[in-house]
Design goal:
The chain contains one helix and ten strands. Strands 1, 2, 3, 4, 5, 6, 7, 8, 9 and 10 form a ten-stranded mixed sheet that branches. The longest helix is centred in the first third of the chain and has 21 residues. With about 160 residues, the chain is mostly beta strands. The N and C termini lie far apart (about 65 Å). It is globular.
Length: about 160
């Protein structure tokens, strides 16, 4: 083997070993919450001043987080509710478990858009901002579906 080629291969081997060393170890970067939102929608509301919203927040990280508030320019207020035994109850926050999901669905946890500034129509999109205890805020585009929309995702 030529001396120059041996030196180049040695350099590549050292570079590869250093890169691999950075991949293992403490894993502190992977322990934080890693949040994403899917399957968001609002059924077209039947009243002019109130609507419901549904979505799924997924946390692929190793640390739980907490949804603490929801806001939108489309509503004067958005409250979070859970349903227990058929009764709707407002809550201040929802846990988003590590390696898990927080699901808002019809008949379960849901968002209530109150004091709507205008009645959303099917085909509109509502922009919603989700705020968390630890993670940065997420902005979600929530399409307005028919009042009878039943998503294939089960919520």
């Amino acid at each position: 083997m030529k001396p120059g080629r041996h030196l180049a291969l040695t350099g590549i081997a050292i570079t590869g070993a250093l890169a691999l060393a950075g991949c293992g170890g403490s894993g502190s970067g992977s322990s934080a919450a890693e949040l994403s939102v899917a399957a968001s929608y609002m059924p077209q509301p039947v009243s002019a001043d109130m609507a419901a919203g549904f979505l799924t927040i997924t946390n692929k990280g190793g640390t739980k987080d907490e949804l603490t508030s929801v806001s939108s320019d489309s509503a004067g207020e958005i409250t979070m509710h859970e349903t227990n035994g058929g009764a709707m109850e407002e809550v201040d926050s929802f846990e988003v478990p590590a390696h898990g999901q927080l699901v808002f669905k019809s008949g379960g946890n849901h968002l209530m858009f109150e004091k709507l500034k205008r009645r959303p129509e099917q085909g509109d999109t509502i922009t919603v901002k989700l705020k968390f205890a630890e993670s940065g805020p997420l902005t979600v585009e929530m399409p307005v579906k028919s009042a009878t929309y039943n998503p294939s995702t089960g919520h």
